[in-house]
């Protein structure tokens, strides 16, 4: 048997259950995210602990990136009695509007230790570049 030492955690869990705040496909829960630029790419890291790789869906439509994931209950035998259940189950989702300066055709996704990491390259057209100046005269002389 588990000892419950934090009554406030239990109260939070009960409140979440009563209010029905676990995510559904029509009303998904948010997932924590970090976003930053690292050199020539934009990185988005999303926390999805306990979610299997095949339960994650990543879509890009125009510049809208959508990540959806579902944490399903662990299958249990008939003789198992749940003593404590604090880990949220259900559907989680996050949408991010990507800038036009990102190359959405080359997004890379990795999933390791419960963290989904998306790497989005900066588009070539958005990188700074030098403009060469021509050597000739830009206008013609008019003789009169």
Structure report:
- There is one protein chain.
- Strand 2 and strand 3 (about 40-45) form a beta hairpin.
- The chain has a 4-stranded mixed beta sheet with strand order 1-6-5-4, with no helix packed on it. Strands 2-3-8-7 form a 4-stranded antiparallel beta sheet, with no helix packed on it.
- The chain is rod-shaped and about 100 Å long.
- With about 140 residues, it is mainly beta.
- The protein has one helix at about 5-20, and strands at about 30, 35-40, 40-45, 55-60, 65-70, 90-95, 110, 115-120.
- Helix content is about 10%, strand content about 35%.
- This is SHSP domain-containing protein.
- Belongs to the small heat shock protein (HSP20) family.
- It comes from Streptomyces nigrescens.
């Amino acid at each position: 048997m588990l000892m419950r030492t934090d009554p406030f955690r239990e109260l939070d869990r009960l409140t979440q259950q009563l209010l029905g705040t676990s995510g559904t496909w029509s009303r998904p829960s948010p997932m924590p995210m970090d976003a930053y630029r690292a050199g020539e790419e934009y990185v988005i890291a999303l926390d999805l602990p306990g979610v299997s790789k095949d339960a994650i869906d990543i879509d890009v439509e125009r510049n809208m990136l959508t990540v959806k994931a579902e944490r399903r209950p662990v299958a249990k035998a008939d003789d198992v009695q749940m003593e404590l259940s604090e880990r949220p189950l259900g559907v989680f989702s996050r949408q991010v509007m990507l800038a036009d300066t990102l190359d959405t055709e080359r997004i890379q996704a990795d999933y390791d230790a419960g963290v989904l990491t998306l790497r989005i390259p900066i588009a070539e057209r958005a990188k700074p570049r030098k403009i060469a100046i021509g050597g000739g005269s830009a206008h013609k002389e008019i003789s009169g």
